[in-house]
Design a protein that fits this description.
CATH topology of the largest domain: FAD/NAD(P)-binding domain
CATH superfamily of the largest domain: FAD/NAD(P)-binding domain
CATH architecture of the largest domain: 3-Layer(bba) Sandwich
Distance between the termini: 16 Å
Number of domains: 2
CATH class of the largest domain: Alpha Beta
Length: 310
């Protein structure tokens, strides 16, 4: 039997597992994807790379600041500046490096699709790729809208998630053959709310000299979420080219990624949820806010609760 099963290898799941490990408690992380870190992600294509999820991190709390300082000291992160202005901390050589640093010495099972989680008295039953597993404690760290598929629509915890809401985001990744005068445009009211030269971040490869990431604004993302990838490129690429002052013929690569749960617009207001003092827990950035620090804080707070209860 698994002592503590953690569903989801995003920042919340990784932070929870690391804190448990520090206290001598063993956990196993299951994630349906091929990568870890959730939105702290780096896409690598044909020798290029794009941080197509979280663009950078800034810490507000002392505990998370200490984590980022350790990552910078170890070379897993670096400080990103534009025109001598601090933007934030980024992974080195990609944002996914932050997740990798947080995953050291953890037991992570990837390509592991978890099915329904059921209470079996003194243990929990669930399936992984169709095979039954059992655990003493279960931590679910997936986005709130994905929880009902694991627990069932009638589960008491699902009703508590109704206040939580998310906004999607469409992310354009593009490579152009000419440099631009600016590195970052940030305007939440614009059609493209974030445009940045990804290759301007520290410790990027010289081959990435013209890679760009653009996030569609909330309205544009929501209105066009169902379009095909090709249609989304046709929609967003001219906007990026106009912003950069380049022609479409100067673009050598372009693709779009959909983030369905990119930003928490209405958080729960608690660091985590626990089912009737049982050993089933829910956690995620959606519990307390939006972003990497919120995800880490939720996972760490839940781990501390488990440590105390054990």
């Amino acid at each position: 039997m698994i002592p503590i099963a953690i569903i989801g290898a995003g920042i919340t799941g990784l932070a929870c597992a690391q804190r448990l490990k520090e206290a001598g408690l063993k956990s196993v992380i299951f994630d349906k994807g091929r990568g870890i870190g959730g939105r702290v992600a780096t896409r690598r294509i044909d020798g290029m790379q794009f941080d197509h999820g979280a663009q950078y991190i800034n810490a507000h709390g002392r505990a998370f600041s200490a984590v980022l300082e350790r990552f910078v000291a170890s070379g897993s992160a670096a400080t990103w500046r534009a025109a001598n202005e601090l933007i934030g901390i980024v992974g080195s050589p990609g944002m996914s490096s932050l997740a990798k640093a947080l995953s050291v010495d953890l037991d992570i099972r990837q390509n592991a699709l978890v099915g329904s989680i059921m209470d079996a008295g003194n243990k929990w039953l669930f399936t992984v790729n169709g095979s039954e597993q059992t655990a003493t404690q279960v931590v679910v760290t997936v986005p709130a809208p994905q929880v009902p598929a694991l627990l069932g629509l009638e589960h008491p915890l699902v009703a508590k998630l109704k206040p939580v809401s998310f906004a999607p985001c469409l992310t354009l990744m593009a490579a152009v053959r000419v440099p631009a005068g600016r590195i970052v445009w940030d305007d939440e009211n614009a059609l493209l709310s974030w445009v940045a030269q990804d290759s301007s971040k520290p410790n990027r490869s010289a081959s990435d000299a013209s890679t760009w990431v653009a996030h569609a604004g909330a309205k544009l993302s929501k209105q066009n979420l169902e379009k095909t990838p090709a249609e989304l490129v046709d929609l967003m690429l001219p906007m990026l080219c106009d912003r950069l002052g380049v022609g479409l013929d100067q673009v050598s690569y372009a693709s779009v990624h959909r983030w369905l749960y990119a930003r928490v617009t209405a958080p729960l207001g608690l660091p985590f949820l626990q089912h009737e003092n049982s050993d089933l827990y829910l956690a995620g950035d959606w519990c307390i806010g939006s972003g990497v620090e919120a995800a880490w804080t939720s996972g760490t707070a839940l781990a501390n609760e488990i440590i105390f209860s054990n």
